[in-house]
Design brief:
Blueprint (H helix, E strand, L loop, with lengths): L8 E18 L1 H5 L3 E7 L1 E13 L4 E5 L2 E13 L4 E12 L2 E6 L6 E14 L17 E14 L4 E11 L10 H4 L1 E15 L1
Antiparallel strand pairs: 1-3, 1-11, 2-5, 3-4, 3-5, 4-7, 5-6, 6-8, 7-8, 8-9, 9-10, 10-11
């Protein structure tokens, strides 16, 4: 497909899987406590499916809107001095609307490399049905992230396949400040995700 990139608009879809976790900042209350010894986030899986709308800006620049639906599981593991353990788990389904700028290298035969980055707002779907108690660790149902990554465009006779590795860092503090030991032990909670995307256009 030698003239594929001459088109103004491209459409496609993608499947993705990766790892996600909370990045936490502990509070002064946590360091003053004698009863709790650990509040540590764990790594969990994430699945995503979505669509691609790609607008050509220049020979080497594209603007990409990538609406998608994602399933996340994140947790913070608490351990107390009396050996009691509590795993505070947050399971969520998100609708995300990443808007990314893509910079492409010169095409070499049937492949080219690219980098991309931008913003990724998201909102939890069906959050009211899964509200947690005020005695648990709770987070807000909206998020705002910075996404960046790299990948390869590989051209086939009928489609373009693009494996891509992308990193996502939350910039919004998602912690809900409840009056319980789980929430009070933390000052800030951000999201962090590393994802492998398989793009088909």
């Amino acid at each position: 497909m030698p003239y594929y990139d001459d088109k103004l608009l491209h459409y496609g879809f993608f499947l993705a899987a990766g790892f996600t976790k909370f990045d936490v900042v502990h509070s002064d209350y946590y360091f003053q406590l004698d009863s709790i010894t650990q509040a540590a986030p764990g790594n969990n899986g994430a699945l995503t499916i979505g669509f691609i709308v790609n607008l050509k800006l220049h020979d080497h620049w594209d603007l990409r809107l990538l609406p998608n639906f994602s399933l996340y599981t994140r947790n913070v593991a608490y351990e107390f001095r009396n050996k009691y353990k509590s795993d505070q788990i947050t399971e969520s389904s998100y609708i995300n609307l990443p808007l990314l700028v893509k910079f492409k290298s010169q095409r070499r035969k049937n492949a080219r490399m690219y980098i991309l980055g931008g913003i990724n707002p998201g909102i939890e779907a069906g959050a009211k049905k899964k509200e947690k108690k005020e005695t648990d660790l709770r987070v807000q149902n909206t998020d705002l992230r910075i996404d960046y990554g790299f990948g390869f465009d590989i051209y086939y006779p009928l489609f373009k396949f693009s494996p891509e590795l992308r990193f996502s860092h939350g910039i919004k503090n998602m912690l809900i400040h409840d009056d319980n030991i789980y929430s009070k032990s933390l000052k800030k909670v951000f999201t962090h995700t590393v994802t492998l995307y398989l793009n088909f256009e």
